[in-house]
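Researcher: Sequence recovery benchmark, item below. Answer with residues only.
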């Protein structure tokens, strides 16, 4: 449709309508783009806020883990110190006897005491002389009981390696007595000590197994001797 206006101006209505439609479409497109951009910005802000929350949680847990590691390290250091002190106390002699001028009665009792006592270690420091005596028994029956305890400990170690505390619970003795006895067995070569484990574990040696095999035949022959 064509309109004739004054001044010889001709306007095509189809072109006008198309222009209006294009303008309206462009306006709608611009508004839609603005809304989309605002929505994207809000989502981006929300995403950054979530990232901040997650980062704060991670930092808090990291701080707590570091605190726990520090506490565990302190406890481990204290435990190592206690173990070192315990081993030092166990390795110290149990009885320290200062040597004094002997009397006639003590000279008469000396041979009997040496026959039933444990090995005597003499440490000389000029000008004084210090004698370390570890006395386990006072009569012959006590020596047999001590040998029975040693054999029982060796039989326990045949089953599996054990610590000094496990041996103490098994034989029902005090900790000091058990420590001295295990030290004696280690020095005698009947057991070996695993220093790589904490606490130390004791294993039976070939000498200990040989002692057990020697004890078994003598125990089997005992009834025959009584019958004869």
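Model:
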């Amino acid at each position: 449709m064509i309109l004739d206006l004054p001044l010889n101006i001709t306007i095509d209505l189809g072109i006008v309508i198309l222009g209006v439609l294009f303008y309206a479409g462009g306006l709608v497109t611009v508004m839609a783009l603005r809304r989309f951009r605002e929505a994207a910005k809000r989502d981006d802000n929300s995403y950054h806020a979530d990232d901040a929350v997650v980062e704060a949680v991670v930092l808090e847990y990291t701080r707590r883990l570091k605190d726990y590691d520090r506490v565990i390290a302190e406890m481990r250091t204290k435990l190592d110190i206690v173990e070192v002190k315990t081993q030092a106390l166990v390795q110290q002699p149990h009885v320290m006897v200062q040597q004094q001028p002997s009397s006639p009665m003590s000279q008469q009792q000396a041979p009997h005491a040496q026959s039933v006592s444990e090995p005597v270690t003499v440490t000389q420091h000029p000008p004084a002389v210090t004698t370390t005596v570890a006395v386990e028994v006072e009569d012959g029956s006590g020596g047999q009981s001590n040998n029975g305890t040693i054999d029982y400990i060796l039989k326990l170690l045949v089953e599996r390696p054990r610590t000094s505390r496990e041996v103490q619970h098994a034989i029902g003795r005090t900790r000091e007595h058990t420590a001295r006895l295990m030290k004696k067995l280690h020095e005698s070569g009947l057991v070996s000590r695993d220093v790589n484990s904490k606490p130390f574990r004791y294993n039976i040696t070939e000498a200990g197994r040989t002692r057990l095999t020697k004890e078994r035949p003598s125990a089997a022959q005992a009834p025959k001797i009584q019958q004869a």
